[in-house]
Amino acid sequence: MAKIVFESVTKTFPGKQAKGRRAGAPGGGAFTALDGVDLEIRAGEFVVVVGPSGCGKSTLLDLLGGLARPTSGRILLDGEPVTGPGLDRGIVFQQYALLPWRTALGNIEFGLEATGVPRRERKERAREFLDLVGLAGFEDRHPHELSGGMRQRVAIARSLAYDPDVLLMDEPFAALDAQTRESLQDELRRIWQRTGKTVVFITHGIEEAVYLGQRVAVMTSRPGRIKETVPVSFGDRATGAGGEELRSSPEFARYRHEIWTLLHDEVARARQLEKEEATV
Ligand SMILES: Nc1ncnc2c1ncn2[C@@H]1O[C@H](COP(=O)(O)OP(=O)(O)OP(=O)(O)O)[C@@H](O)[C@H]1O
Ligand SMILES: [Mg+2]
């Protein structure tokens, strides 16, 4: 059985942006962000979602996180419809969503409070996860005393600490410099391999998608649907080979080009749409 199933998922927002003329835009001023998303994700799979800006990627993740409800269609998690947020799903947002008045350790403990882990154990477990993301020694720092990359590590540690089955990540590394991003990608891959979690990861970065994803789902321009999913497999990935070697391989370049082409067509379509709407 699939871990996660999107079944003809549609999301419309009541709004002023609809132009009526556009295919997929219903009348009455509603705005269609997602229109018929179908996607199945296996347990333990690492799926990356890419798509033009505004195509509904964050909306998709919000729905899976239970922060919003689909207008039609349904989302199943372990065969049950998602009806709200839950501790079985950890979310890492693009913006560092840390509590500024709590230390790094305190922020991770915060995630554990909701799960009823006893206080002593909370501290221990929080330390363990801070270690896991390479931040041993930074327990007592507050978010403003940490770099952007460190804050994002704390956010990742917080979502991992209460042991959700599913990790939802919305452009978690977008605001970081290239080097920090690459080292966090390696760390995330290592954590994923170690924990076997199901990961849904959104990004604008094609290289990031190819590097991290077992499968890359490319979305259409809005209203968003899944245009195509590209399975990514490298001969030597299972052995843990990574870093520069993988990124500079001909296979990597081939995948990058394939996804670039799929995405390029959609971005062009999105631009055209915007132009048409601007002249209405
Ligand atoms: N609460 C809302 N009310 C009205 N419209 C919304 C709402 N949330 C999102 N939208 C619209 O839905 C569309 C999809 O938004 P979403 O944030 O999911 O896009 P995205 O693919 O994540 O974009 P980006 O790559 O820029 O982050 C956008 O056009 C956006 O304006
Ligand atoms: Mg977004």
UniProtKB/TrEMBL annotation:
Tagged with keyword ATP-binding: yes
Record-annotated ABC transporter domain positions: 4-246
Keywords: ATP-binding, Nucleotide-binding, Transport
Single GO term (MF): ATP binding
Annotated Pfam families: ABC_tran
Record protein name field: ABC transporter ATP-binding protein
Source lineage: Bacteria, Bacillati, Actinomycetota, Actinomycetes, Kitasatosporales
